[in-house]
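Worked example (supplementary).
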Amino acid sequence: MLLMQDMTKSFLGIRVLHSVSLDLAPGEVHAVVGENGAGKSTLMKLLSGEHTPDGGRIEIDGTPVAFDHPAQAQAAGVGIIHQELALLPDRTVAENVFLGREPTRRGLVDRAAMARRTTELLAELHAEGIAPDTPVRELSVARQQTVEVAKALAADVRVLIMDEPTAALAEHEVATLFDLVRRLTERGLGILYVSHRMREIFALSQRVTVLKDGRLVTCLRTAETDVDAVVRAMVGRELSAYYPPRAAPGALGGPVLTVSGGGNDRLAGIELTVRAGEVLGVAGLQGSGRSALARAVFGADPFTRGRMTLAGREVRPRRPREAIRAGIALVGEDRKAEGLTLRQSVRDNTLLVTRAVGVGERAGATTVARLLERVRLAGGGGAGQEVRYLSGGNQQKVVIAKWLAARPRVLLFDEPTRGVDVGAKAAIHTLVRELAAEGLAVLLISSELPELIGMSDRVLVLADGRPAGELPAGPSEEEIMRLATSGADRAGAA
Amino acid sequence: MTAASPSPALPAAAAPAAARWRRGLSDPAVGIWLAALGVTLLGWAVVAVRGGEFLTQPNITGILQNCVALGLIALGQTMVILTGSLDLSVAYLASLGTLVAAETMAGSDGNMVTAVVAVLALCAGVGLANGLIVTRLKVNAFIATLGVALILRGWIEDNYTGPAGDVSRSFQRLGYDRIGPVPVSVFLLVGVALALWFVLRRTRLGHHMYATGGDEHAARLSGVRTERTVVIAHVLCALCVGIAALFLAARFGAGSPWAGTEARYDLESIAAVVLGGTLLAGGRGGVVGTLGGVTVLAVLDSVFNQLAVDPFFKNVLRGVVIIAAVAVYARGRRSAGRNR
Amino acid sequence: MTATTATPIQARVRRGTALTRALGSALPVCALLLLLLAALAVTDAGFYEPDRFLAFVRRAAPLLLLAAGQYLVIVSGHFDLSVGAVVTTGVVAAAEIYHTYPGAHWLVVTVVLVAAGALVGLVNGLVTTGLGVPSFITTLGMMLILEGGVFYWTGGSPTGYLPDEFRAVGRQDAFGWLPWAVVVCAAVGAGVWWLMRSSWGRTLMATGDSERAAELSGVATGRVRTVAFVLSGAAAALAAVLVGGYSGVSAQAGSGMEFEAITAVVLGGVLLGGGRGSVLGAMAGAFALTALFTLLNLRGVSGALEPTVQGVIVIAAVALGAANFSRPRRRSPAPPAPPPAAPADRGPTQPSTGGPTP
Amino acid sequence: MRTHRAGRRLAASLAAVCAAGLLASCSSDAPPEGPPDPSGSAPSEDGGGEADEAEFFEEDEYQRQLALAGETPEGPEGRPWEQMLRPEMVDTGDYALDADQVHLCFSNAGVFNPWRQVGLTTMEAEVAEHEEIAEFTVLDAEGKDDKQISDIQNLSQQDCDLLIVSPNTTATLTPAVEEACRTLPVIVFDRGVNTDCPVTFVHPVGGYAYGAAAADFLVENVEPGGKILALRISPGVDVLENRWSAAELAFQDSELEVADVEFTEGDPAVAKSIVTDAIQRHGSIDGVWMDSGATAVAAVEAFEDAGLEVPPISGEDQQDFLQAWADRDLTAIAPGYPTFQWRTPVIAALKVLRGEEVPGEWVLPQPVITEETRDDYLAAEMPPLHYGLCGCEDLPGYPRDWGGR
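After joint prediction of all chains, the assembly is encoded as:
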């Protein structure tokens, strides 16, 4: 029912899509994969009307369409669930769900109808808990994601684009999303499913289209192929060893970071120890306090209870500055909003911490060169270019370089490989290991269990902001999930 | 994602009343009206102590009367600010409006309608220009409207040398009639306020204005025609200025080239809007707050008059009041948005 | 992948960043400036005789200073509307000081003024960063307070004369040919230029670009920004010394200068909302603005029409800049940067709010 | 949410008000019907509120002022603020008050420039002179026509015995003044209004005389063919337009050439730049005409800094100019728009309330300061922006209250 043919698009004279074609049948889930910069998102944005194509044509049910504004795409029955939530925190759930297509009676917005329909939609999504007149800012992330989905469904779409829909979701929420997808396809919707996560793709899709450098590589029937084949098509090379070897138990040094009885308005009874050379994985559902833990240690939302020691000395950082001085670094989960100043050069971003806090490396060209070398920032246009022009992977490498400049003792990684392509992902994993091997204490938060399992020397599982248990190296996903969901009904409600 | 920073479980189903209550308290529109009431009582007390009487008919009339012009313009300003824009051209536009009105009327009631239409048309035009410069030429609203202000200024100074035109007698009644202690022009103000309040609450345009002001990118992705919304907001604003100009003309009986600028309507209107609790960034606030802000300023002014406060010192006090008020809102918002 | 995406990046660098790095966002203003200067040459052959040109620069000096100060505030994501009032206050206050202490040494008075200006900036900064009041409002209020305050103090008009030795800086020449004002400007300009290359400057720029990122990188954003306000206040006070020196006592020395300064800075390609722009651009903008006034004057454009022409040119210039170079953060849909960067340009707040809101 | 409920409340209360309003007697503060009287004692400086420049020139008013400027006023010697030219006395018997204590009210346009500052100070000092004035209420409109209208309405409804008005704008305040006239005696000064309802209108001879005096001086003192630079504050101010139109006329029938007419916004910095440019463009400037003194010194300095002889120049009675004039002994003249006129309304008010007759239009003399008379007005102890023609030397509190030492 959907046909995109020979779609081409250039930005600043650089062609990012070379006549890519793709089609979608009713009730089908069609996965679109590719590394960052492969052109997936651009292709989707052409379809959702966010960008206008330079060439090619789009047909829906055989009738050619042309969008130069999202409104037109919606009118034509194309809905999109964005990677970044596009919600207005100050407006109510209902107002958000119907934003841009408010139901009207006699020209006036029909608030009653809005509320009613919203309730229905949320019911469909098994999210009765959400009141239509709550301002979105008062909802948890998971619930905001749900609202985003409801928003996409509100317009009765026939083609639904899901761009990394699970990026912000925890495993069990992913499950909910999956059966939502199935129910939608039963209704005859066609779904374009963009994702990095092979498991999801193979669980859901009938076909998978692989893009590389803005070109269509291949379109495979999911049933007739396997992960390696797809990855090979994506990367153009085998990625044999996903995860570097762990540290030998003997290689671990003494405790560097310890927290005992740590707590604040989101955490309670946190007990943890990270030793030099160790990678401590932290698992948990969305809202279980994983990121809160990192932010607490980093002094962004500090502990209000308990004590924390760094290399034996007691520390209680009340803001990031103090944490950094003490030798703690946080590679945050939101690169673009929290990790980088996007209009500034790679150089300035790399030196930001050193300059701001006056610790670690001297601010200078040689330092920058060495650090970028260290994080294997490849194929950049030099240290002078603005980071916003870098690919997700390279941006993440700059963030890490920035922290290495501060010569930290403890490195906190929160979702270090989110939205990063397979190649860069491997590079980052290797880097993390090397850093640990150099004697840093590493705390690794990830909602991607394979990564967590592959990287961690121990795994601390959180639920409801408290430790739910600790697992030795190489636990199974089931073990983790069991602990993580121990308080899940409440966490789930969040 | 900003939203991705984990937030505590807060099932909206549980204790929504509490949530609403908290929201209620953190809403400036309520606060500013309480403030207005407070200032009035204070003024009444202070003046009473000094053996005067504050709430006399002349005073009340005066206060209400002083609300109208600034009120109308501030209402317009509210529209653009909510949408995330800004209009610095209102002062000169008001001046030009009075001149056009007075000259078109030329003293005869016959031309009244023509004049009204002319003024509103002119303003709509200027508003449209503002909107298009901001959206199409992508000039920052601050600079865009500042530039338009300069253009208008040049036009006025080049074509007018002092008061001009003659407003017909029956039209002047708009500026002078009153029902009991309430000037009719106040009903005009309230009328416009109701209309705009209705637009914001009950029309798609209104919803889209809040959305555009709140997060233009998100709004656009949701299919809102953000640029169109901004343009319309500017036109609405300019129309309000037009109405204000008509009122001023009625009051002056003639057009005055410095009607808008001497009163510093550009900055004062913005101050009033923000005093009314509308977020300067857009996306939050509304006409109710703005009216409150205007009222507070008018009452304060009347109190200062009663106490014969040195006009220079008045400015100092005004400055302090505005900063203080906004500081309070900022505080409220922070504590309200703690769990973000 | 890195190898594969490398090529487009480098290409992009050549087209986009390399350019912007060279002259950057200041490119349009430099073009405009050259245009105006050329027009001036055509209009008035003698304009470039050294002494006349220097006299012209001397005249531009105060605005250049204000622009330099304003630049620091704007690039950090804020506004300073109080500079005009600071200039007025400065001149009137100086007169008042000399009225009370006729013998005061000019240097002392100058230092006192600059300190006072810095103090005003400090208050602006603390209220804005500490209490979370949008700088537009803070400095607007400060403007009212200063204007009201100084005239309340002096009873409506300056009460003293400015002695010649105080006025020398704004009026006399060094070595008989180089106006002191020019020296001051050059010094301040160089100072700011150097500051922006210092750690403080880079962190200031980072703060203006993304407050959250800066905060989480250990930048004391509040402190950094407050310093910017302080410097802006000090620069304004210094400008007051020049203005007072140039043209003597006046009750409205600085009226409207705040808008001229902001216009100049934006004209210079500095992004309202922060994070981008160079001080040279800002000062070039101020220079261009003064050149424009002079040109209109020499051209004998009806005094009344001058504002109109000015308005048109400002809008046009900024529109041009917006179109080609520093794309304003709001008003712009998803930017033509590749998808990875797309969400970056989601302008958090409207520039004129004075930076991010809590 | 909140806005919603608040809105409801608003709507409700509005409805109530409306209802109440309809019940309440519908009253109007609008001035009586019938077009305003444009002629009559239409004040000399009144532009008639017309857009067209030509409208600012009224031939007979022009002639009248030139004549008046030459006449010697009636009234006490040395007290110009009590003198009057061609008085046509009107009877004020019906306003007579037998109370020995009076309450005067004053609606002031504002104190937004030094001239008005000096004036107000002078007026308050004058009031202090008369102990029979029990109360003196001043409302300051801060230059806002709208506010001054409200002020006038407010005052005319208080227990004032007499209302003094210094209008911010001529035409726009006419309705309000007419309204006030119905309830109490009104005295207007400085600027006029388009109505003859006030008991008297106090003002100096006027703008034509001012402009002409300065222009004639230049015509006499500048070599024929000389280039004149005219510096004006800003376009569109009726008072100033009159001064210029008179000067324009004078220059037209002279040998002089008006090289440039520029606006300074009253900002010395701008003035200085303009003069500098003009000197450069025209090689030389042989005379400078100004419609007000605010920027005179800046102009003088422009010539100095250019290393040139300061040509004949016209200024005003501000101390800094008189000082510069004396120090550099310039060829200069300073026509004045005397601030002593702020004393007269108070005097007139008391006369009116005593039932004594006053001139229907109280035209004050308008001294022109020349080489000879300069030193009488030059007071070293006074601040630079003080006006020499304040006639305040004999008042209590002089010189301190005027900022002097």
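Two points are worth noting when inspecting this output. Residues 1-15 of chain B have pLDDT under 50 and may be disordered. Residues 226-252 of chain B form the longest helix (27 residues).
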